[in-house]
Design goal:
263 residues; alpha/beta; 2 domains; 10 helices
Length: 263
C-alpha cells in the first residue's frame, strides 16, 4: 500500500492572519533603535493607511519592496532581530485574527502542516511564525554580508514567486498540492491560490473578490482580533519542556522559602 501524500495549509500573512502589514508595523521601534529617521516613520504610517484603504495591489507591493531595500541597507542583523523579538507580542500579538487561529487548529487536527507565505522580510515573518507556532515559513530573504543587510533582495516572495516557492517546498516535503489549502487576501495572491486544490479568499480586495466569484472559490471575512502571547498553544514537546521549567522554578521557590524560614 502506498503512503498518502502529506498535506499542508498555506496562509498569506498580512490582512489574512494579521490585520496590518507586518513589515510596516515595526517602523516606530526601528526609529527608536536608531535604524530609521522620522521621515521613514512618517512614510510607514502613511503606507499603513494606504494599505488598509486600498489593499496590496502590484504597484503597492513594488513600492513596499523598494522601501524595504532602501531602509534595510546597512542594518545590523542582530540588532534587527533583537528589536523584532522584543516588540513582537506588543505590535503583532494583538493583531491576529481569531478566525485564522481556528483554521490553524482545524488543519492541525487533520494532520496538515501550517505554512505562512509572506512577501514581508524573513527577519519579521519567522518570529511571527514562532509566535503563532506554525510549522514552516516562506518569506522574502534579504542579502546579508558581514552581519549587515546590503539592501539587495535574494528572494522576493510575491506574486508568481510565491507559487514557485510553494511548488518547490511541496516537492521537498512530499505534499500533494491538489490536496492542499491556501488562503490569501489580494489579487497578488492569485498564483498562490491557483497552486492548490483548495483555495480560499480571506478579506479579499475588490479584484480578488471578483476572481473568487469567477472561479467559484469560497470567501471568508475575518474580523475578530485576539491577543496572542509568546506561549500561545505550544506543541506537546514544547508544553512538556515548559512544564519541566515551571516545576523547576516552583521547586526552587519552595526551597528558597524553606531556607529563609530556617534563617
Amino acid at each position: 500500500m502506498s503512503t498518502p501524500a502529506r498535506e499542508a495549509a498555506f496562509f498569506d500573512l498580512d490582512k489574512t492572519v494579521i490585520a496590518k502589514s507586518s513589515t510596516l508595523a515595526f517602523g516606530r521601534p526601528f526609529y527608536k533603535g536608531g535604524l530609521v529617521n522620522r521621515r521613514a516613520v512618517y512614510k510607514s504610517v502613511v503606507a499603513q493607511l494606504v494599505y488598509r484603504l486600498r489593499g496590496a495591489d502590484a504597484d503597492t507591493m513594488d513600492r513596499v519592496r523598494d522601501q524595504l531595500r532602501e531602509l534595510c541597507a546597512g542594518w545590523p542583523v542582530e540588532q534587527v532581530n533583537a528589536i523584532v523579538v522584543e516588540r513582537m507580542h506588543l505590535l503583532i500579538g494583538s493583531l491576529v485574527y481569531g478566525e485564522a487561529l481556528e483554521l490553524f487548529d482545524e488543519h492541525r487536527a487533520a494532520s496538515r502542516e501550517v505554512v505562512i507565505v509572506s512577501s514581508s522580510s524573513e527577519h519579521v515573518v519567522r518570529p511571527i511564525g514562532e509566535l503563532l507556532d506554525v510549522d514552516h515559513v516562506i518569506a522574502t530573504r534579504m542579502a546579508v554580508v558581514d552581519g549587515k543587510y546590503t539592501g539587495e533582495i535574494d528572494f522576493y516572495a510575491h506574486g508568481e514567486s510565491k507559487a514557485v516557492a510553494m511548488r518547490e517546498f511541496a516537492a521537498e516535503r512530499g505534499y500533494d498540492l491538489e490536496q492542499c489549502w491556501a488562503y490569501g487576501d489580494s489579487a497578488t495572491d492569485l498564483a498562490m491560490l491557483q497552486a492548490v486544490g483548495h483555495p480560499m479568499a480571506v478579506n479579499p480586495d475588490k479584484q480578488l473578490r471578483q476572481l473568487a466569484d469567477e472561479y467559484g472559490w469560497p470567501v471568508r471575512n475575518f474580523q475578530r482580533k485576539v491577543r496572542v502571547r509568546p506561549w500561545h498553544r505550544p506543541h506537546p514537546g514544547k508544553a512538556a519542556a515548559y512544564a519541566v521549567v515551571g516545576l523547576a522554578a516552583l521547586g526552587s521557590g519552595l526551597l528558597w522559602q524553606k531556607r529563609r524560614r530556617r534563617a
